[in-house]
């Protein structure tokens, strides 16, 4: 078949790196299946045909998107596949200009139940500006689509992707395990609503490394059921920082545990590192959290635990049932744009316990030269080394 080309290690273009390291694999070029990189022709069906052929292959396979601009509507790339599979993008995928074309779907590009998956390079542009305008104008808008989602996937690598102007979340990871996200670039305007950079929920063993995230909401948001995460070398800003939560939106909710955020820089973000839970009953928890070696550059609340989250004031006189414990903030330095550089606002009925502040130096960017302060409520812990502003403990 002319649509399928068997690749061997001899004389193969570097574009097919996956095939370079596998003695014999099959490469499926979306152009051979009818895709056109002119930015106008709907190539969704061609992508689906290429994916189906690769997924059914008895050899390890490569779906290849060459240079060009490919118009793509909602794209469901379903597994399970018979062997490991690579999806390599050297071109750009763009959504239709009319936001309704993908806005009524929860996802724009979805990988579902795929194990042994590698996604490399390229750019995806969801053209979210029209959708954001709809949201800001208070109109009747669709739910909006996440740009790329991994759902029920295991052993995944996402590397070198650039995601532009998502309607909502840029990269979503749900019900998945052993996922590595590396060297991604995420961009949306600071005023774009709910455009989280990377959202992780109900997943284990997620690693996020060496990425630049500039967006209108959380750079990285970590939802219920997230366990054993490592986040390192992130450039965050603009955005709302790196957040665990919101937690406690429902009573029977999975907890969050064993999260590390380290060696990262926050620039002009609304928050730095944050734990956030609703002020309502819950059986959830957040524990064994490590935030270390962080630089804050004019950040609103560099260190924040907020257990009184209630944006619509529909939970008055309630207390968060989420148990927050064993949280360490270590070697956090830089500047705060608010006076409360450290804010630990915990639940009256479930005080935060095991909080540790060590080697903190945060100053207040203020023309009046007011010093930075710490605010603590229902928080129990200890300090170590030099802590500026002075710890509440």
From TrEMBL:
Main location: secreted
A single MF term (Gene Ontology): polygalacturonase activity
Any single biological process term in GO: carbohydrate metabolic process
UniProt keyword annotations, A-Z: Cell wall, Cell wall biogenesis/degradation, Glycosidase, Hydrolase, Secreted, Signal
Superkingdom assignment: Eukaryota
Localization per Swiss-Prot or TrEMBL: Secreted, Cell wall
Signal peptide boundaries: 1-27
Family from the record: Belongs to the glycosyl hydrolase 28 family.
Name of the protein this chain belongs to: Polygalacturonase
Organism annotation: Anisodus tanguticus
């Amino acid at each position: 078949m002319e649509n399928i080309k068997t690749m061997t290690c001899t004389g193969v273009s570097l574009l097919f790196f996956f095939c370079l390291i596998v003695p014999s694999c099959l490469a499926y070029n979306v152009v051979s299946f009818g895709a056109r990189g002119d930015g106008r022709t709907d190539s969704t069906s061609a992508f689906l045909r290429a994916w189906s052929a690769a997924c059914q292959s008895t050899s390890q396979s490569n779906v290849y998107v060459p240079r060009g601009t490919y118009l793509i509507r909602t794209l469901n790339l379903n597994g399970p596949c018979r062997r490991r599979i690579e999806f390599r993008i050297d071109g750009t995928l763009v959504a239709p200009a009319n936001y309704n074309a993908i806005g009524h779907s929860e996802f724009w590009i979805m990988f579902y139940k795929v194990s042994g998956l590698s996604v490399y390079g390229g750019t995806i542009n969801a053209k979210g500006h029209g959708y954001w305008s709809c949201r800001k104008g208070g109109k009747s808008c669709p739910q909006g689509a996440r740009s790329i989602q991994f759902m029920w996937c295991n052993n995944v690598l996402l590397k070198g992707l650039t995601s532009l102007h998502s309607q909502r979340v840029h990269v979503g990871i749900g019900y998945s395990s052993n996922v590595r996200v590396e060297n991604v670039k995420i961009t949306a305007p600071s005023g774009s609503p709910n455009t989280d950079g990377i959202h992780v929920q109900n997943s284990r063993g997620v690693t996020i490394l060496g990425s630049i995230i500039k967006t209108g909401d959380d750079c990285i948001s970590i939802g219920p059921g997230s366990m054993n995460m490592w986040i390192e070398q992130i450039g965050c800003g603009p955005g709302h920082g790196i957040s665990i939560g919101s937690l406690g939106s429902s009573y029977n909710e999975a907890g969050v545990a064993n999260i590390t955020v380290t060696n990262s820089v926050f620039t002009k973000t609304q928050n730095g590192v944050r734990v956030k839970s609703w002020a309502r009953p819950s059986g959830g928890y957040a524990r064994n959290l490590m935030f270390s070696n962080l630089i804050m550059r004019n950040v609103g609340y560099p260190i924040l635990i907020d257990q009184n989250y209630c944006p619509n004031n529909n939970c008055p006189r309630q207390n968060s049932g989420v148990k927050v414990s064993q949280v360490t903030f270590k070697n956090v330095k830089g500047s705060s744009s608010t006076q409360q550089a450290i804010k630990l606002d915990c639940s009256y009925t479930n005080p935060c316990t095991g909080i540790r502040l060590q080697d903190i130096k945060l100053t207040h960017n203020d023309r009046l030269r007011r010093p930075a302060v710490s605010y603590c409520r229902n928080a129990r812990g200890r300090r170590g080394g030099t802590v500026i502003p002075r710890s509440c403990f």
